[in-house]
Amino acid sequence: MSQIRRVAILAEGSFSLFGAKTAVGVLRYSRHETVAVIDSQHAGKTVGDVLPFGGGIPIVASVAEALNYKPEVLLIGIAPTGGQLPPSFRHAILMGIENGLDIWSGLHYFLSDDEELVKEAARCGVHLWDVRKPRPGLVVGSGKALSAQAYVILTIGTDCNVGKMTAALELRNALAKHGLKPAFVATGQTGILIEGDGTPLDAVPGDFMAGEVERLVMRCDAEGADVILVEGQGSILHPGFGPVTLALMLGSMPDAYILCSVPSRTTYRPDHVIPIPPVRDVIRLYEDFMAVSYKAPKVQGVALNTSELSEDEAKQTIIHYEEDLKLPVCDPIRTGVSPLVERLIPLIVAKRQQSDK
Amino acid sequence: MSQIRRVAILAEGSFSLFGAKTAVGVLRYSRHETVAVIDSQHAGKTVGDVLPFGGGIPIVASVAEALNYKPEVLLIGIAPTGGQLPPSFRHAILMGIENGLDIWSGLHYFLSDDEELVKEAARCGVHLWDVRKPRPGLVVGSGKALSAQAYVILTIGTDCNVGKMTAALELRNALAKHGLKPAFVATGQTGILIEGDGTPLDAVPGDFMAGEVERLVMRCDAEGADVILVEGQGSILHPGFGPVTLALMLGSMPDAYILCSVPSRTTYRPDHVIPIPPVRDVIRLYEDFMAVSYKAPKVQGVALNTSELSEDEAKQTIIHYEEDLKLPVCDPIRTGVSPLVERLIPLIVAKRQQSDK
Known about the structure:
Two copies of one chain form a homodimer. In chain A, helix 1 packs parallel to helix 7 and helix 4 (87-98) packs parallel to helix 5. The radius of gyration of chain A is 21 Å and the shape is globular. In chain A, 37% of the residues lie in helices and 15% in strands. The two termini of chain A are 26 Å apart. By secondary structure, the first copy, chain A, is α/β, with parallel strands linked by helices. Chain A folds into two domains: 6-130, Rossmann fold (3-Layer(aba) Sandwich); 144-356, 3-Layer(aba) Sandwich (Rossmann fold). At the A-B interface, helix 8, helix 9 and helix 10 of A face helix 8, helix 9 and helix 10 of B.
C-alpha cells in the first residue's frame, strides 16, 4: 500500500455536493489527506461550510494560495467540457509542477502526452499521473483470483451509476472498524483518485480487462488483506457496459456479491430506452452465470441509493426489498451498511479460517 | 461495400498452410483478388503448389517482382517476433509505398504512428491501414441491433481459436450460393484483412466494444443484407476473453448462434488450466443469458474443427454430437456447412418476410 500523501484538490468553479463528484469522493473516502480545496467561488470558507462533512479543510482561490498548506499532490477534481486542456487548467497545472507537486489527473486529455507539461515535470522532478491511461504491459486474465485466500466481494448493479463505488468504500471503512484488514480495488477514475491506485477499466482494451482486475485482486491478497472489496462497473445485461461487468466477475472470481440499485430507475442509463429486468432476474443471472464454472457467489446483501426518495419512502422501500428478497438491505449513505456487515463478517472469518488451515 | 482491390501478400519466410494464418485466410476467403504472394523460399511456384487451393497465383521473391502483377495493395500477412518493425519489413513496406501501393497491416506496430512511413505515404498518396488500431470516435453500445431487419447469426465457441471466423465465412459463401445476400462482420485482424473492413475488437477499450459491433451490424443491415454473419471471439466463460464474447452478444443481438468447438480440447487456451464446461452447459448459458432481456437466440447448429482427428474419428464424432445435441453438426472444412445451411435458410427467409410486412 502506498504512503499517505498531502493533496490539494482543484475544483475551480464547481465545488458542491453534486457538482464535483470526484472532489467529493476524494474528500469523503481517500486514504490521503486533503489539505486544501481550490475554488475561488468559495474562497475563505471551509469544506464543512459547503458539504455535510469535511470540517475545517480550507477552500482557497488559487494553486498559489493552496501552497501555504504544503500539499505534495495537485489532484484535478473537475473535467473541462470538450476534452482539450483549457488555458486556465494548463496554468494551474504548471503552477503545481513548478512548485514541486505531483499531478493526479482524471482528465480524458493525457498530461503525460503533452510536451510542455512533460518537459516541465521532468525539469521539476515531479510525476504526472493520468489515471485514465492504462498501464503498459497488460496481460490476459487466467482465473488466478480463484486462488485468493482473502474473501472477495464484488459490488454489482442493476445499472451503471447506482452507487457501486460508494457501497464498496463504506463497507471497507465499516469492516476495518470491526478489526478486519480490508482492501479496495478501484476500477473507475474517481475510485482510483481516492485510492491512489487501481485500473481505469473503461479504457483498457477488451482482451485485458479481466487480467487487470485479477492482477489487483492478487496483489491485495499477497499484501495480506482478509477481505477485498472490488469496485463494480456497469451491469451484466447493460447493452454497452455489460462486457466491463463480466471482466470484473471473471477477473475477481468473487466469493460474494453486494447488489446496488436505484429503486426508482426502470431503464438503463445513459439512453433511458432498454428496460432493466426485475431485480430477482438480475440476481439469478449474476449468481447462475459464475456457478457454471467457478465459485458460486451469492448476493449477500443489497445497497440501495434512495437519494431520490423522501425519508419515509426510503424506509418503506428498504423494508419492501428485505421482505421480497430475504436479504439484508440498506442505503449506505442514509442508513449505513451495518446490516451488510453483520451478514458478511461470519463469511469473511470462515474463509480466513479455511485459508489458514 | 468497398470495391474489389488487387492485393499482393507479404508472407516472406513463412508461407504454408499452418505457418501463415492471415495469408491463408485472405487467399481462401477474401473478396479481394490476390495477384501475388511474396515468399522467396517458394519463388517460382504457384499458391496451388503449396496449399490445397489457390491455383495459379504466382509466388515471387520480392515486392519488386510482385509489381509485375499490378497490385494496388500490399498486405502484411506475417508478424515479426517482438513487436518492433525489423529492417526487412520496413524495406518491403517502403518499396510498396514508393510504387503507389496502399499498405494493409495487421502488425502490433502501427505504421500510421511511424514518422518515416507516414511521410512517405503522404508523398506518394497512398493509405496506411493498421487494422489493429481502433477508429476514433467510438461510441457506447445501446442495443440498436435489436431492430436489425436482417437475420443475425453470431458464431460462438467453447474456447478461443476453434474456427469461429472460418464457420462464419463458409456460411457466408454457402448462403450466397443459395441466392441470399449475406454480410460478414469481421472482428479480428485476419477477418478484417479478408473483408477489408471490421473492428479489431481485442484492441477496443471495454466501454466501446459492444458499440463497435452494433455499428457494423447496423451498417450491413442498412446496406440491405438479409443475413449478417458476425465473427465471434473467445468464449463466454473464458477467464480472459469472456468480456469480448459478451460484447459480441450484446452488440449483435443475434437471432441465432452457431456453436464452434474443437472436440478434443478440454481446457481453455492459451493457459491449458481451467476446464471447459460440458458443451450442453455452454449452450444453455449462451441461450439463457440473452433470453432474460433481449431476443432468445438458440444454437441452430454446431461447427466442429476435427483437424486433429482421423477421417473415421471425425465422422464418429460428428454423429455423436448430432445424436447428443439433436442439432445439425458439421466440420466446415472437412464436410462442408450444408447441414447448417439447410437449418438456417427457412429461419432467414421467415425473418425477411416478417420484416417486409
